[in-house]
TrEMBL record:
Transmembrane helix listed as a keyword: yes
Database matches in PANTHER family: CHLORAMPHENICOL EFFLUX PUMP RV0191, PURINE EFFLUX PUMP PBUE
Membrane topology qualifier: Multi-pass membrane protein
Domain Major facilitator superfamily (MFS) profile residue range list: 210-394
Keyword Transmembrane: yes
Assigned keywords, A-Z: Cell membrane, Membrane, Transmembrane, Transmembrane helix
InterPro entries to which the protein is assigned, alphabetical: MFS (IPR011701), MFS_dom (IPR020846), MFS_Efflux_Transporters (IPR050189), MFS_trans_sf (IPR036259)
Sequence intervals crossing the membrane: 27-49, 61-81, 88-106, 112-135, 147-168, 174-195, 207-236, 248-267, 279-297, 303-323, 335-357, 369-388
Gene3D superfamilies: MFS general substrate transporter like domains
Compartments it resides in: Cell membrane
Pfam families: MFS_1
Origin superkingdom: Bacteria
UniProt name for this protein: MFS transporter
Source species: Mesorhizobium argentiipisi
Length: 394
């Protein structure tokens, strides 16, 4: 670290560098654009299915391909590329994502859709890395991470409403994806207000920093938690149908759950410093397992509603504590850069793994699998704590 960087690090909130509030807000918006699709998939992919562009199986492939591509893109950009020329990188990634969204709008086959969404996912992952690279440099990474998930969820809610009420009814799925491309192009203005170069974190032997038992256990714990959510969320409608709850009602539950996610993110941002991350992750993992088992028990309408709202709340409430877990596991903060990849891989693999257990029209194995994944997340946290204590990290 140079003398000037050392002086900047004295400025309290940042380990290295000293971005302004505007620069921080710009970076968080750029990362949020990369994750808009997480809240828009039910609207946009649902429209593709309704219009007959894809079958149910093909729809699952499109969604999974994009999720995995986001995870790969975020990991590759964060781990392999230096945090330099971030304005140009943001600009190129936004233009690439806009192009992929236009390609999606005019794709004529399921294979073309998979290709377009894979390209989109790689660009989206790169945009996520623009944000996580800066978050990793903050002394208050958990709080900044809370701001990040709050901003992205608010943006998802607002854009989902606009697409559902205006773009998709008037122009179909194509109009929805073109609108998403327009958001990317408008965000080019923001791209030129991000810090151009991030001050360096120590990254010597960065892969070795992640290839340790504490870091691997921490990332696997995060992966398993999001595998729980991905499994239940993907099959929420057929699970509801099995117990006599119609698709329209489940759709209302999804919308309400998005609002609960915003509340969860805001609550975590306010309370993250007051709650020990080990207690928070353990408690939320147990709550997740109980909610999953309630879904498997044949719940009535009121219990189903409660489960959907609780799941929405805990999904993003846990994120700041997972960031603290990753920081504790790897003091060089390299593992923090892989948190989005672990989350997204979990969201992508969860539905695929759970689908292997479905027996005909019986979807009970899905929430049972989700409960096991949530408990595995807690178990892996326990392994992390045991190993980290031996090494004097907790």
């Amino acid at each position: 670290m140079t003398a000037s960087q050392a002086a900047q690090a004295e400025n309290g909130d940042w380990l290295v560098g000293n971005p302004t509030s505007l620069q921080l807000a710009s970076v968080l918006w750029i990362g949020s654009v990369g994750l808009l699709i997480l809240g828009l998939q039910p609207v946009l992919l649902g429209a593709l299915y309704s219009e007959g562009h894809v079958t149910g199986d093909e729809l699952a492939l499109v969604a999974t391909a994009e999720m995995i591509a986001i995870a790969i893109g975020s990991g590759v950009v964060a781990m392999l590329l230096p945090a330099r020329n971030m304005r140009w990188k943001s600009t190129v990634l936004l233009m690439l994502l806009a192009l992929a969204n236009v390609w999606t709008a005019y794709a004529g086959s399921p294979n073309a859709l998979i290709g377009a969404r894979t390209l989109a996912g790689l660009a989206e992952g790169g945009l996520v890395a623009v944000a996580t690279e800066l978050i990793a440099r903050s002394r208050r990474a958990e709080r900044i991470g809370g701001y990040f998930v709050t901003l992205q969820t608010l943006a998802q809610c607002a854009l989902a409403l606009i697409l559902a009420l205006f773009a998709v009814p008037r122009a179909g799925s194509a109009g929805g994806f073109i609108a998403l491309g327009i958001v990317c192009l408008l965000s080019l203005v923001v791209a030129w207000t991000v810090p151009d170069d991030y001050a360096d974190l120590p990254k010597e032997e960065q892969f070795a920093n992640v290839a340790t038992v504490p870091a691997i256990a921490a990332l696997l714990s995060i992966f398993c938690y999001f595998m729980f959510f991905g499994a239940v969320w993907a099959f929420l409608e057929p699970i509801g149908a099995q117990f006599g709850i119609d698709g329209r009602t489940v759709g209302l539950m999804v919308s309400a759950s998005l609002a609960a996610q915003v509340l969860g993110a805001m609550t975590a941002t306010s309370f993250e410093a007051r709650i020990d991350y080990r207690f928070a992750i353990t408690l939320i993992g147990i709550v997740a397992a109980i909610n999953s088992l309630l879904l498997a028990s044949g719940p009535g309408l009121s219990v189903f509603w409660a489960v959907a709202l609780v799941m929405g709340f805990i999904l993003l409430f846990i994120v700041p504590y997972q960031i603290r877990l990753a920081i504790t596991a790897d003091e060089t903060r390299t593992a923090v850069l892989l948190v989005p990849a672990a989350q997204l891989f979990g969201l992508a693999i969860g539905p695929v793994a759970a689908s292997l257990l479905i027996d005909g029209a019986d979807f009970r194995p899905v929430p049972e699998f989700a409960a096991a994944a949530a408990l595995a997340s807690v178990l892996l946290l326990g392994i992390f704590v045991l190993v980290a204590r031996r090494r004097g990290r907790v």
